[in-house]
Amino acid sequence: MIAAFSLTPSGGDAVDDDGGMSEAVAAAVRVVRESGLPHQTTAMFTYVEGDWDAVMDVIKRATDAVGELAPRVGLVIKADIRPGHTDELTGKVDRVMRHLS
């Protein structure tokens, strides 16, 4: 599966000096990177690929990491569940790019 997720910390120490939330978001991204699962971070979402249990575990741990800096955390998840397929994080994009070239 591929899951796209976004965490929104609010309150507490989550807000940076410039009004952003990059420190709390970085804590979540660190969890994803250390997971060893294929991943990609964009301006709006972090994508992670693996089996259901591994992906959900990473999302939970990332949420917990943000929760250490903020008393409230919003979580949005979108998932593409396709058993038997791997490397779809890049494969889906590659197939579209073939049609564009």
Automatic annotation (TrEMBL):
It comes from the Bacteria. Coiled coil: none annotated. Residues 4-96 form the Thiamine-binding protein domain. Pfam families: Thiamine_BP. Belongs to the UPF0045 family. This is Thiamine-binding protein domain-containing protein. It comes from Gordonia jacobaea.
